[in-house]
From TrEMBL:
One of its GO terms (biological process) is DNA replication. Residues 832-852 are annotated as: Disordered. It comes from Corynebacterium pelargi. HAMAP family: Smc_prok. This is Chromosome partition protein Smc. Gene3D superfamilies: P-loop containing nucleotide triphosphate hydrolases. InterPro entries: P-loop_NTPase (IPR027417), RecF/RecN/SMC_N (IPR003395), SMC (IPR024704), SMC_hinge (IPR010935), SMC_hinge_sf (IPR036277), SMC_prok (IPR011890). SMART domains: SMC_hinge. Required for chromosome condensation and partitioning. Homodimer.
């Protein structure tokens, strides 16, 4: 078993879904401080059931949900899924792979899942407890946990061993049994109280039973009198049974008649429903057509706006480049200057040639003088050195001359190649400049700005529609709440059943509602129904209006202008028209109180009411507002329903417009994204061209410098050849003069020739520099002219391209104008179609309302008949029940009399039937006399024997139950003792193993040190704590508080590793446990990690490179400026004799 993957969604800094794919061995998580490494540890603890917010480094549990950062908004839930490989069956579940999911919402609600199925927290804890993972989470060693282990109480340290030993589930069983035992004690106390109470009641009841037994003889005297009375009673019961049977037959006939009427009404209802069902699809189709046309209208409007904006965008743009004619003029001017530079170069060359001729003449003179002098000088030396040396010198000079000639030829070829490369570089630079002119960023920038404005306008329109929709939805919610409140708080009639409020049958105009309530007075609270069908004894005073139809009528009075009868402003249901028209026949609706008083004074038969509720009659007037009546509430509800219908209709209308605006906004966003992509690509292309131009310019400069250096080398090589040729001639002359030298020669002629030669050579050098400068200026002017002509050609091409683009823009603008015109035409047709659809929808809705009203009336008739049928059925049932009850009473009487007297009922009826002269009073007097005789015997409880028997049986039952509860308590104590024994065994075994492992681990981490674990109370293994004694090498202290920080960390690690060895767990999580360790102690700890990895999986949060080197998988955790953690996974592969290498994991998730 090992952890296979961990998926985080919205947990702390993991805003996006992030998956970590673990592998067996050591998995290291690395990253800078604050990047979210420890959040991985918190996620593991949280998904395995951690309930402490402080343990998760938070103030409250909701802090685990991503709270937002930068541009990222806060999320509403956090979710972590841990997948465990259970191929070895370590978890007690029939799956080879187990996924545990924990989900939490901001309202505090939590959800748990195991393999996608809902589960409880307890289910997850019990599932993991069998693997040694419990509430203490000893397998997760987080930051600060090491110091907590050493600073905690001994009893708290015990919990780590208990968790590793699997004791926690047995402790939960013990706690559950103890809670049951506590609850059972209360039941036991109650049983004991009841048993004692019954025991007290048995003694007096036994005495009463004994008295009843003694009175049995007296009761026998009553037998005959009671039999006679019983015969009379049976006769009466037979007569009552016959009467009820006749009533049952009449009820059956009435029920059958009403059922037939019910079938007729249901047929009418079915017909109304059929008509309504036929109309509803048409209305829905009209509604859908109206929605589609509304959306189409909005899309056409959006298209027209976009086309108008694009028409304005594609206006003519001036050419951004330089004028080709200006460049051509500058090229011609440069070519004209080129002739001047060529003339100057020719003049300088002619002067150089003249000077060279003079130099050659003087050089020849000087050389001749020098040769003559040197020949004379060397002749003497040569005579001495011999001819052999001269011949060797001549051969050497010949070889040097050949080498110099070859080098000169090579330099000339190299110079020609460099000049060719220089021309190529100039052409590439000119081509790059032409590309830069052709790819201007201005049109793309304008297009991006235009689409951004279009998208912003569309978003603004969409936001306005969204706000309007939200306002309508809030209005609808408020109206629905108002309707519910009004209906809930409406005055309820004091009578229920087959009565309905009168307000359901009336509907007044809005401005006449108050007047109607005032005119009706107490009748506003009236109910409609049959007053004879209800008992009114326990009901408050109620006005009941009987159903009846009548035509509208009023008293014969001429009303003044602006005054009308109130009935003309009220819609009255036919069912109550008789009573309502009678109540309103004399009520007139006046505009003011004065006119009302004047009308009543003119004709006292009339009652006048104003729209604000002032009611005037002869000699009286009703002022002010009374309590709210059911009629007022019904009017308010009706008004709210109308407002709700209008709001729903507006919301439906807005839905179509919103859909069109949403699509237009989406299209604008797509266009904006495309324009931004094109602009970014153009910017990148422009930057690339600039870099290319810089590189080409730099290369051209380098090549120019190389050409100049090569020219200097060529000149030097030519000078070298000349010098070698002169040396060769001199050597030959020396060989000829060897025999002619006698004395030292004179130097006057040589000196004079040398001075003249030096003077003329200086003039030659000056002329040569002038020639070279003129040639350079000529070459530069030639390159400048060629470059200008090329730029003019490129500019001409760019201008032609610009003109073509302008032609395209004009064409697009024309298309946009055409789209605007066509959109206007389509909009007119759409508006006409929308008007027709609106008219059609209104007609169908009106027809639908009429059909709904007809269906409602038919349904109400059916309901009324159903109520009458139900009442008839109820009546039939009541009479049938009465017949049955009469039969039951007769049967019970027969049975009871037979049981009491021991005489069959038929015998009683036959033998003790009342005769015609039967005197009931005399018989009763006889019975009373017998009863007086019985009373004279004393007070007797006739049921004492039965009560005593029942009480005695109950006492025995409770005594048995009491014994069962006491036995159950003993069984529970046995279970607790068994659990304690199991806990004692598990803890003792684990303690012995951990106690044996701790010194070994301690000596590994502290070579030469001494450490051990000690029980605080060895005699009480169920509650004893654990103390840690540690003595590092070279120290005599054993108190943990005197150890250094690193020593404390290693000691705590030693205890944990000892537990890990004694009771291995499938995996362990270490969060920067080696942060306080030096290199030596770190290597020791790594050695323990190497040992633990053989049997368990380790997930280590670390900053230490040695720890990273031993990892099988490396997870890099980083956090950018947006505050969101990202993970990169790498697999660390190892070769036998090579170092570790990094291989990206194929399933790494970021």
């Amino acid at each position: 078993m090992y952890l296979k993957s961990l998926t985080l969604k919205g947990f702390k800094s993991f805003a996006s879904a992030t998956s970590l794919k673990f592998e067996p061995g050591i998995c290291a998580v690395v990253g800078p401080n604050g990047s979210g490494k420890s959040n991985v540890v918190d996620a593991l603890a949280w998904v395995m059931g951690e309930q402490g917010a402080k343990t998760l480094r938070g103030g409250k549990m909701e802090d685990v949900i991503f709270a937002g950062a930068g541009q990222r908004k806060a999320l509403g839930r956090a979710e972590v899924t841990l997948t465990i490989d259970n191929a070895d069956g370590a978890l007690p579940i029939e799956y080879s792979e187990v996924s545990v999911t924990r989900r939490m919402f901001r309202d505090g609600a939590s959800e748990y899942e195991i393999n996608g199925q809902r589960a409880r927290l307890m289910d997850i804890q019990e599932l993991l407890s069998d693997s040694g993972i419990g509430r203490e989470m000893h397998v997760i060693v987080g930051q600060g946990r090491l110091s907590q282990i050493l600073e905690s109480r001994p009893e708290d340290r015990r919990a780590f061993i208990e968790e590793a030993a699997g004791v926690l589930k047995h402790k939960r069983r013990k706690e559950k049994a103890q809670r049951k035992l506590t609850g059972m004690q209360a039941n036991l106390d109650r049983l004991q109280d009841l048993t004692e109470e019954l025991k007290k009641q048995l003694k007096p009841l036994a005495r009463q039973a004994k008295a009843a037994k003694r009175a049995a003889t007296v009761q026998a005297d009553l037998r005959e009198s009671r039999l006679r009375l019983a015969g009379h009673q049976l006769a009466q019961l037979y007569d009552a049974h016959a009467t009820h049977s006749q009533a049952f037959d009449e009820a059956c006939d009435l029920h059958a008649s009403l059922q037939q009427q019910m079938q007729t009404a249901q047929h009418a209802l079915q017909q109304a429903e059929s008509e309504l069902a036929n109309t509803q699809p048409q209305a829905q189709s009209a509604q859908k057509l109206w929605f589609d046309l509304s959306a189409l209208s909005e899309r056409i409007a959006a298209t027209s706006r976009v086309a108008s904006e694009r028409a304005s965008h594609f206006q003519p743009v001036p050419f951004p480049g330089e004028d080709p004619s200006s460049l051509l003029s500058r090229a011609e001017q440069a070519e004209a200057e080129l002739e001047q530079f060529a003339s100057a170069a020719d003049i300088a060359a002619e002067r150089l040639e003249a000077i060279r001729e003079e130099v050659e003449e003087r050089a020849e003179v000087a050389a001749e003088a020098e040769r003559e002098h040197m020949a004379q000088v060397r002749a003497i030396a040569d005579h001495r050195e011999g001819v052999v040396r001269l011949l060797a010198s001549q051969e050497s000079i010949q070889q040097q001359l050949q080498a110099a000639t070859a080098e000169s030829q090579r330099l000339h070829e190299h110079l020609a190649e460099q000049r060719r490369q220089l021309r190529v570089a100039a052409d590439e630079l000119a081509h790059s400049e032409r590309d830069a002119q052709q790819h201007s960023l201005k049109p793309l920038q304008e297009a991006a700005d235009s689409t951004a404005l279009e998208a912003a306008a569309a978003e603004e329109r969409l936001e306005q529609l969204r706000e309007r929709r939200g306002t309508l939805e809030r209005t609808i919610s408020k109206l629905e709440s108002r309707i519910e409140t009004l209906e809930a708080n409406a005055p309820k009639p004091s009578v229920q059943g087959d009565f309905a409020p009168l307000a359901q049958f009336l509907r007044a105009e809005p401005d006449a509602q108050v007047a109607l309530s005032a005119a009706l007075g107490a009748f506003a609270q009236a109910v409609v129904g049959d007053p004879t069908a209800h008992s009114w004894d326990d009901v408050a005073r109620t006005v009941v209006v009987e159903q009846g139809q009548a035509d509208a009528w009023s008293i014969d009075v001429d009303l003044p202008p602006q005054t009308s009868w109130l009935k003309d402003h009220v819609h009255v249901d036919d069912a109550v028209s008789l009573a309502v028209y009678r109540l309103l026949a004399d009520v007139a609706l006046c505009p003011s109180t004065a006119e009302a008083q004047a009308l009543v004074s003119e004709d006292p038969r009339v009652r006048a009411v104003t729209r604000d509720g002032v009611l005037v009659g002869q000699g009286w007037i009703v002022l002010g507002r009374g309590e709210r009546t059911a009629l007022d509430v019904a009017a308010q509800v009706e008004q709210a329903r109308e407002e709700l219908a209008r709001a729903n209709e507006s919301l439906e209308s807005l839905s179509g417009v919103f859909a069109g605006a949403k699509q237009a906004a989406e299209e604008s966003r797509v266009a904006q994204a495309k324009a931004q992509v094109a602009l970014r690509e153009a910017v990148q292309r422009d930057r690339a061209l600039q870099q290319q131009q810089e590189q080409l310019s730099s290369r051209q400069h380098v090549l120019q410098q190389q050409v100049e250096r090569t020219q200097q080398q060529v000149a030097a090589a030519e000078e070298r050849i000349k010098d070698l040729e002169a040396d060769q001639a001199a050597t030959a002359d020396r060989l000829a003069r060897v025999e002619d030298v006698e004395d030292e020669p004179s130097t006057d002629a040589r000196d004079e020739a040398s001075a003249a030669l030096a003077q003329i050579r200086a003039m030659e050098m000056e002329a040569r520099l002038n020639v070279r400068g003129a040639e350079d200026r000529l070459e530069q002017a030639r390159a400048n002219a060629a470059g200008l002509r090329r730029k003019a050609s490129f500019a001409q091409q760019a201008k032609q391209q610009h003109e073509r683009e302008q032609h395209k823009r004009a064409h697009r603008a024309q298309l946009a104008h055409t789209v605007v015109e066509l959109a206007a035409q389509v909009a007119q047709r759409t508006d006409r179609a929308l008007e027709e659809a609106t008219h059609r929808r209104s007609q169908l809705q009106q027809r639908l309302e009429v059909q709904k009203a007809a269906e409602h009336k038919a349904r109400r008739d059916v309901e009324a008949l159903r109520e009458r049928v139900e009442r008839a059925a109820q009546r039939r049932h009541e009479t049938e029940l009465a017949v049955g009850q009469a039969a039951v009473r007769l049967e019970e009487a027969q049975t009871k009399l037979s049981e009491q007297t021991g005489v069959p009922a038929e015998t009683i009826r036959a033998d003790f039937a009342p005769a015609e002269d039967f005197d009931l009073e005399a018989e009763r007097e006889r019975l009373q006399q017998a009863e007086r005789d019985l009373r004279s015997l004393g007070k007797i409880n006739p049921l004492a024997l039965e009560e005593f028997k029942a009480l005695e049986e109950r006492y025995e039952f409770l005594s048995t139950q009491l014994a069962d509860v006491e036995q159950a308590r003993r069984d529970l104590r046995g279970v607790i003792n068994d659990v304690d024994a199991k806990i004692l065994q598990l803890f003792s075994d684990a303690w012995r193993d951990v106690e044996a492992e701790f010194p070994k681990v301690f000596s590994t981490l502290f070579p030469g040190g001494d450490g051990r674990l000690v029980l605080t109370d060895p005699d009480d293994m169920l509650s004893t704590g654990i103390e840690v004694e540690a003595r590092p090498p070279g120290k005599k202290v054993k108190r943990l508080s005197l150890l250094s920080g690193g020593e404390k960390s290693l000691t705590a690690l030693a205890m944990l590793v000892a537990i890990f060895r004694a009771r291995p767990s499938p995996f362990y999580v270490m969060d920067e446990v080696e942060a306080a360790l030096d290199d030596v102690n770190l290597r020791r700890l790594i050695a323990l990690f190497e040992q633990l990895r053989q049997d368990s999986q380790l997930i280590v949060i670390t900053h230490q490179k040695p720890t990273m080197d031993i990892a099988n998988v490396l997870y890099g955790v980083t956090m950018r400026g947006d505050g969101v953690t990202r993970v990169i996974s790498q697999r660390m592969s190892r070769a036998p004799e090579q170092g570790s290498s990094v291989t990206p994991l194929p399933n790494a998730s970021h």
